[in-house]
Every structure is written in structure tokens, then in C-alpha cells.
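Let's do one together. I've listed all components of the complex below, 483 residues spread over two lines.
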Amino acid sequence: MATFLFVVPPLTGHINPLLPVAEDLAKKGHFVAWAGHTEVVSQHIPASQPCFPLPSNESTFVDENWHKVRGLESVKFFYEYFCLPMALRCLAPLEKIVDELNPDVIFCDHQMIAGALVARKKEIPWVSSVTTTASILKLLDVIDNWLADKLADLQKAYGMKQIVERPDFSDYGCVVFSSQALIGQDKEYFDAPYHFVGPAINQRRKPTDFPWEKLEDNKRKILISLGTVNRDRCTRFYDIMIEALKDEDVQVIMVAPENYEAEIPDNFIVQSRVPQLELLSHVNLVVSHAGHNTVCETLSHAKPLVVSPIRDDQSVIARQVVDAGAGLSLRFGKVSVAKAKQTIFSVLDDPSYLLAAARIQRSFEPLQGSKQAALVLESLLDPSQERVYANG
Amino acid sequence: MSEHLDTIVSLIRQAVNEDWIDEFEITAETSFNNDLELESIEFVAIAEKIQQHYGTDINFIEWLGTLSLDEMIELNVGQLAEFVEQHMAYV
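Okay, and this is what the predicted structure of the assembly comes out as:
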């Protein structure tokens, strides 16, 4: 039995894929503990796995501006005001946790950089958890160089002897919850030992009420879900969707903010939360903001997408979907009723998108997601053993 | 300046080629990130078109490479036109 420490940021999308990995290790008799913002992490993890608290991320500036930035600006904002200050704040408390727990292996989210630096300083074997493949791809020199400078400053501030370009990626291995078939073959990666394990889908979610009896067997169904952070951003997108689809012979399940006020057409089911994973088996198409988890879950069900990215990594993931042939994209703030209708029916009516989604599904299957991630982590326990490599 | 601005606006409209862009007012102050909602990769494609249009007389792509991250985020159509204007003046 070994002790694994999972270090995560207070972001549900980064915690979810790690839950089945922790479960798999626990089943094999290992002890899994977490370090993170307890109020977020403890909502997700089982009672048998303790969570060591890291200082919370209180910033009214971030809360107020998080929703306002888009595109390249949102990438800078994310690191400058969220990720890097969080790393600085968490370094000392995390060092203390690691000293007390003495884990055999640390599994550290790639955007929880304190974990990476502490593991390196304490010389504990560690693996990076990459929950969005936008991070491992080179984007533009201007942003890649800016980030490298900021990461160098952080390493200097922590007194690291060796400054590396990307301290968030471990030399021991980086578990990437996707496949190269989705990422695309012609992409330029940062240099690191990647293990492409495919999506790790957390099957144990809190039950959410849904009027299943309202789903009509003989109608094609569309799920519209923009993810919680983007959901409340602006209601224009939802208004457009209603206008575009209200008179069509389809059934639409739309996740909208609780306070969303509109006349809901008969062929729409609008809720603020839905059982997304269960719904994926029933729908023909998903309209999404191109969050990494939603995209991977949708493609795991071999369903095509219409993607409408807003911020952070979403435009990179959206492009992966389009390049893979598994969907089309809509420009979030500019979409018109006519364009929405045309794009959605282009994907619904053309089976080539479905076939491409099925191709990505097949690329995920042999990679075994959380099981393979757990094997990668275990392979670090015995250095004499050959490392496990997964090549999606 | 306005001649180059018109050319650049027209190149942007052609490159984006979506329904909204025809009616979207593009001025010198229109920013690529916030107003046009262009992703980095789309902006690069437009930059290449502008470079192609003006040919080797100007080092447009090279100039973009010298901008800081903040300058890239704030970059607007007028700044592109201004660069072309200034550079063409010396040719």
C-alpha cells in the first residue's frame, strides 16, 4: 500500500477526472489524500479520502472580472490573477502538508503549480494531471513566452535552483485526459513525457432531477450546455437558440441560468442543472462552449458537437473538434438566428460528423482513462520497474 | 491612413466571411480580441493576408512579433493601418 497525494485547484472540471483515478487506486488498497480548497474539493470526494486544506482563493477582483474577459486576454487573466497568485499562496502550506503526510507519489494538476514546485523541491516522484489539452500545445510565441517568464519568476521566488521552461509538466510523466486522434497529428507540443489516457469520466455524480418521461422517442434531440462558469454570462445565446429551434421538429434540452426569463417553447426543456452524462445517450447533438470535459464526454458517446468557445482553453478545444470533423463552430457573441439554425442542422443532417465522433470514441476506448492513469501513477512506486507508457 | 484602413477592413471582412461581419461596423478603434472576437489563430491568418496584400515592402508579420502580450490583446484595426501608413511612407 502506498500513499498518493492529489493536489488540485478549486475548479470542478479539474477535479472530476481525478475522482475515478483516486477510486481505482483506493480499490487497489492504496491511500489517497487530497490537498486543495476544502470547500470545493470536499463536495466531490468520498468521506474515506481526507482533504488537506490549502488557502482559499478569495479575490473580489477575480470574481468580478472572470466573466468579462475573453480570448487571449482570458488566458493572461487566468494565470496572472488566479493561477500564479494561488501558487504563491499555497507553496508554504503545501510544503507542510507534504512533510506531514510524506506521500510516495504526488499527482498534481498542471495548473496547481505549487504542487509541482513542492514535489520537485522535496524530490518526491510526481505526475502532472493535464485536464485540458490546450495547455500542452504551443499557441503563440507572445503568450507562450509571457507565461514562461512568469513561471521563471515563480520558480526564482521559491528558490528553485534549476529554472525550467514549463515547471507544470513533470519529467516523471504527464497524464493527459484525451487522445492524439482528437488533439490532431500536426500540432506542436511542449516537450514532456505525455501519457494519453483518454477521458476519465466520473460516473458517480450527484443525482439530478430530470423529466425523462417528456423525451419523445421519435424526435431528434439537442442538448445545449455551456458549463457553469459560462452559463450565466449572457442570455443572448439562449434567446438565439430558442428563436432558431422553436419551430423545428427537434426536442431541445437547454441548461440555462436559474434566473433565465423567456417564454419556453413546447419543444424545449430548460433547467439550470441536468444529468448530463445520462442525457448524452439520448441526444443526437450537443451544443457546447467546448470545455474539455464536456467535449470528451460527448465524443465518448460518439455524439457530434456544435461548439461556441468563449474563453481560456475553449477555442483550442473547439478547433480540435472542428479539425477532427466531429462538429462545427459558432462565434459566441456574434451568432445570429439564421447562422445557428444553419450550423446546427448542417451537423444534424450530415452523418459524416457522427462518423468522425465515432472515430474519436474508438480512439478513446483502448486508452482506458482512469485505469491507465492509475497504472501510470503506480509505476512510479517501484523505480526498477519499467514505466508504463500509454500512447493514444 | 484611410486608404490603408479601408483595405485592411476589407481584408478582415473577406477573411472572416460570416453573416454578421457584413453589417458589423469596423473602425480604427475596433479591437481584434474583444470587438471582433477573433481567436489567435484567426488573427494570424488575417495578418498573413495583410502581409500578402502589401508584399515584401513591409515587414508586417515581423512587426507583430515585436508586440507585447498586452499590446496584442489591445490591438485594434487602426494600429495595423497606422503601421502600414508609416512604413509605406518610407518606401
